[in-house]
Design a protein that fits this description.
The protein has about 750 residues and is α+β, with helices and mostly antiparallel strands. The strands form six sheets. Strands 4-3-8-7-6-5 form a six-stranded antiparallel beta sheet. The protein has a five-stranded antiparallel beta sheet with strand order 10-9-13-12-11.
């Protein structure tokens, strides 16, 4: 046993060595045995030291490896974070690139629109120049011709090759020796020169020369305008002669009393008509106040002074009242007082006529009524002619389409190209385009036939469920580039009584419309089931939806909302055809949507086989009878307001009219109304301000109000509804559209 050297720490170790001694080996002496042990122990101690050194090196190497692994791990973590950051930056860059791409697409579209607008403007300007009846010549600073209008050829012997030549080298028919000086003055003084000149054939012109300014406010030439005033000069001569005749007529006429006064109201002239009507001679009335022809009670109430005040403020003052003759009798006179221009000496002129009998007024009212009825009949005739023209035009359009169709078929069957995939693909594309256009024309023709009463239905028993399933599969397959899920729930033995071709048109238009506006990954649900003696077809999609303000017009002819989800929104005739065909079968059609982005649902009811249930012409909404209603119509366009009010009166309504918002508010304070129909764009107070005042008033807050305006954009309709109107109708709107809007309220 020998103690082993040990580092500080646990208790020391002792080496115990057992030596095996063989029986044949001689016993060692003490001295020899000790030497061997010492030698063995020394050898073992040396090995132990080597092992410890090796162990220590191994431990150190392990610790070093551990540190290196930790460092490597930290580096890997750092690299991982850098990769994650780089990935996020790449995602951000991708989104920025996508956003930039969208902006570039928008900019490209805007540039395209601008280019088209610029082309339209150039076309408009070219047509304006060509159609202008004013002789105009554009010259540069060297007086060389740049452009001219056709009428300038009559004054200057211009031909197309004269562009670039000096204007003074071209023969002129004008007696205008100052032309060069006036043009130089326009260049030098930058002012407009205007002069009256004549031509060799005796015509009169107003020559106006003004500088040609560029967009950079540089003077690059001059514009020479020559206005033909020959007819104006002749008209002025006629006017002067006419004025003289009118003066003589005014002095001698006996049917009208023509009276003039000075600014203080003292009579200065008194014609023969005034003598006959009032009984006073001119000598008796000169320098007397005009108030003396009024009744004593009107004089006491200041009516003459009020009439002169209104004439000064508005230029004229009309009045229909009783007046007094010299003999004391009274007569009813219709007259007008106007304020004379200060250049004519000022004062007033009053023209009056004895209108005691009102027969003339009644005849005038009957004439206006006949004229309004004639205008209404002309409008109806124009609509019928439009429908006929649409039918003829659609029919003629089929001829070139048929030619294209036949040539495409021939191309696809020619020997040598029948197996060519490119030719087949082109032929299929042409046939698809022809089929699409043909469907549009057929829809137009069908609408025309329906509206002219020429559409005939070949009614048979139609299995609606089977027909719809086939059409739905074809519609989904016809939406290239989209993955659309189809849920078809068609009950068996739902057989309707209808024209199979027309029923297919109804189903196809609804399903293709849903496929067109449903985005990739969307869903279309189709249901066919019986309902109260009708076969109901319902098509629901997850597409772009319909705005609430457009929903009442979705079945209108050529009505097309803003394209939200489909760039090829179509002409807006498919749904109109669905609606008309449903009515022609004795059914109806309805549309429903929760708004933009919430999809839409279209339902069509067709009569089942064996049902005799009567269906109204418009089964979507209940009928509306406005007889006895009090309606307030507001519009600043009086010529349109009067016939609109008359139509409502013919429907039995009691109608009051106002030409601006202030008048409407005054009427609303004194009368109770059932309906307000107002224009939007009006002076003083527009429709938006008017409805705001109506909604703020406790008495009129619940009054139903419909905006009827020429502002027919989607934003205008939304603004009207947000302002407080209950509905919006774009002009022109028929009375039936108004009644439909009332029914929806």
């Amino acid at each position: 046993m020998r103690p082993l050297p040990q580092d500080a720490g646990p208790p020391g170790l002792v080496l115990v060595v057992f030596d095996e001694v063989g029986e044949s080996m001689p016993l060692l002496t003490a001295e020899s045995g000790d030497s061997a042990r010492v030698l063995l122990i020394a050898q073992l101690e040396d090995e132990i030291r080597q092992l410890k050194l090796h162990l220590q090196d191994t431990i150190e190497n392990s610790e070093t490896s551990t540190e290196e692994m930790k460092a490597s791990n930290e580096e890997l973590q750092a690299i991982n974070e850098e990769l994650r950051s780089a990935t996020e930056e790449l995602e951000t860059s991708k989104e920025e690139l996508q956003s930039m791409n969208e902006e570039l697409v928008t900019v490209n579209y805007e540039l395209k629109v601008k280019v088209e607008e610029r082309g339209d403007i150039n076309d408009d300007l070219q047509n304006l120049i060509s159609s202008s009846e004013i002789a105009t010549i554009f010259v540069n600073r060297g007086m060389r011709v740049k452009r001219y209008t056709p009428d300038a050829v009559r004054l200057f012997n211009l031909i197309p090759t004269d562009l670039g030549r000096s204007l003074f080298d071209i023969t002129s028919r004008l007696d205008y020796p100052e032309l060069a000086d006036d043009t130089a003055s326009a260049f030098k003084d930058l002012r407009t020169v205007e002069r009256h000149v004549t031509s060799a054939d005796g015509r009169h012109y107003v020559a106006r020369i003004l500088p040609y300014r560029t967009a950079d406010d540089k003077i690059e030439g001059a514009i020479l305008n020559f206005f033909d005033i020959t007819d104006l000069r002749a008209a002025e001569a006629k006017v002067r002669a006419g004025e003289e005749r009118l003066r003589m007529v005014a002095a001698t006429t006996r049917d009208f009393a023509i009276i003039t006064t000075d600014p203080a109201g003292l009579i200065t002239t008194w014609n023969r008509g005034a003598e006959r009507i009032f009984g006073y001679t001119e000598e008796e009335m000169l320098q007397h106040p005009i108030a003396s022809i009024f009744t004593p009670e009107d004089q006491a109430h200041g009516v003459p002074e009020e009439e002169m005040r209104r004439a000064v403020e508005t230029g004229r003052a009309e009045d229909d009242r009783w007046h007094l003759r010299k003999n004391g009798s009274r007569f009813f006179c219709s007259g007008v007082m106007t304020a004379l221009d200060a250049s004519a000496g000022g004062g007033f002129a009053k023209i009056g006529r004895d209108m005691t009998g009102t027969k003339q007024l009644e005849l005038a009212q009957e004439h206006r009524l006949v004229k309004e009825k004639k205008t209404s009949l002309n409008a109806q005739l124009a609509n019928e002619l439009k429908d006929r023209f649409l039918a003829v035009m659609s029919h003629e359009l089929k001829q070139p389409l048929n030619l294209i169709q036949m040539n495409a078929e021939l191309l696809m069957r020619l020997p040598g190209v029948a197996d060519n995939p490119k030719v087949q693909r082109l032929g299929e594309a042409i046939r698809g385009a022809v089929a699409s256009q043909s469907r549009i024309i057929n829809d137009l023709l069908d609408l025309s036939r329906i509206r002219t009463g020429k559409l005939r239905l070949n009614r048979v028993a139609v299995d609606l469920g089977e027909l719809v399933r086939t059409a739905a599969t074809a519609a989904i397959a016809g939406a290239p580039g989209k993955q659309i899920a189809l849920d078809a729930h068609c009950e068996a033995d739902v057989v309707c009584n209808g024209d199979r071709v027309r029923v297919e048109q109804i189903a196809w238009n609804l399903l293709s419309n849903a496929a067109k506006f449903t985005p990739d990954g969307g869903r279309i649900t189709v249901r066919v089931a019986p309902e109260n003696g009708f076969a109901r077809l319902t098509v629901t999609d997850t597409g772009c939806g319909i705005a609430p303000e457009f929903l009442p017009h979705v079945f209108g002819m050529f009505n097309q909302a803003e394209a939200v989800a489909s760039p090829n929104g179509g002409l807006g005739i498919g749904l109109a055809l669905v609606y008309e065909l449903a009515l022609a079968h004795g059914g109806r059609a309805e549309a429903h949507s929760e708004g933009i982005g919430h999809g839409a649902t279209f339902s069509v009811w067709l009569p089942l086989v064996g049902t005799d249930q009567a269906v109204k012409a418009d089964a979507r909404l209940p009928g509306v009878n406005v007889k006895g209603w009090r309606v307030l119509a507001v519009d600043d366009y009086a010529d349109a307001l009067a016939p609109f009010a008359e139509v409502l009166r013919l429907e039995g309504a009691v109608v009051d009219t106002a030409e601006n918002g202030k008048e409407a508010l005054a009427l609303l304070q004194t009368q109770r109304y059932d309906l307000l129909v107002s224009d939007l764009g009006m002076p003083e107070m527009d429709g938006f301000e008017l409805i705001g005042e109506v909604r703020r008033n406790e008495v009129t807050r619940e009054l139903r109000a419909i905006a009827m305006s020429g502002y027919g954009r989607r934003t205008d309709a939304r603004r009207a509804l947000e302002a407080g109107f209950d509905a919006h109708l774009p002009k022109p709107a028929s009375i039936e559209e108004l009644k439909s809007a009332i029914a929806r309220l």
